[in-house]
Amino acid sequence: MAYSVSGKSIEADEEGYLVDINQWNEELADLIAKDEGITMSPEHWEVVNFLREYYAEYQIAPAVRVLTKAIAKKMGPEKGSNKYLYELFPYGPGKQACKIAGLPKPTGCV
Amino acid sequence: MSILHTVNKSPFERSNLDSCLKHANQGDSVLLLEDAVVAAIAGTAFAARLTDAAKMVKLCVLGADLKARGLDPAKVIDGVAVVDYAAFVDMAAANNAVHAWL
Amino acid sequence: MEEDFEGGIVKKFMYVNRKAPYGTVYALEVLEMVLISAAFDQDVHVAFLDDGIYQIKKGQDTKELGHKNFSPTYRALEGYDIEKLYVEQESLDERGLTEADLLVPVEVISRAEMAKLMGEMDVILTA
Q1: CA distance B71 to chain C (A)
Q2: What is the pTM of this model?
Q3: Where do the domains of chain C lie?
């Protein structure tokens, strides 16, 4: 499949994950989120940006368990909880937030 | 605790067998199969190494792989046992773990 | 083998890396296997010996190769609660490397200690 942003076509795999992470931009993130039924709020952006920083440092999309723990470490236990993250991304912070962030599907995610 | 190590590459091409022998403990078993069977034959440049290792570990070679390569099971190094697939299975069951040196 | 508090069996796993990265796909495949294994709450050990130590050599730059540099991912292992990383001293020596050349904290052990550790494992996967 492909996304269309500002008249430009951006390639994605059959599940909607970007083929090339470098083609990501915020406008595209909004579009992917809309496809997922999510309207991006500052709280959503906080998680998406965190994921992009994580990827830049480690070159992988973290497993949900690891993401939750890492967010707890940086932003405190309230945000670093399954409840908080699943409220923001009902179909899974790993799958949905990674897709919106332009990352590949998390390693270890089946 | 003992381990059955399996090696399937010739020691003349890869370091798998060398590394395996360096990490095998007393009482472990080492089974040579596929291309690694060439190491079991007497008179090769690797033979001394294997003769030495036979003092510490149980060395075996898969007969089917020897025959497939035209190598005579009668010419294996002293201390190396020629085994069949059934014996391979028995060895796997008799050890705590199988370590395939890929 | 020991029973953990939830009653599941925890086995000692060791993933042994013996190959340099990029020339073959083994290093990346093992790394992915290790990351996935973290989800199963097992006692995971990761060993680097022979050319496997090149996987965690500092300063890897794959830009001209057009291949993803996955070496930073070894530093993510800690976040996956995989903290038992072992490097063999003899393998470092043979390649003129020291612990300071490695991009992740490891325990450097002798070949004899590595052999002993392998003997304590329930499952060993080498590539």
Answers
A1: 28
A2: 0.89
A3: 2-126
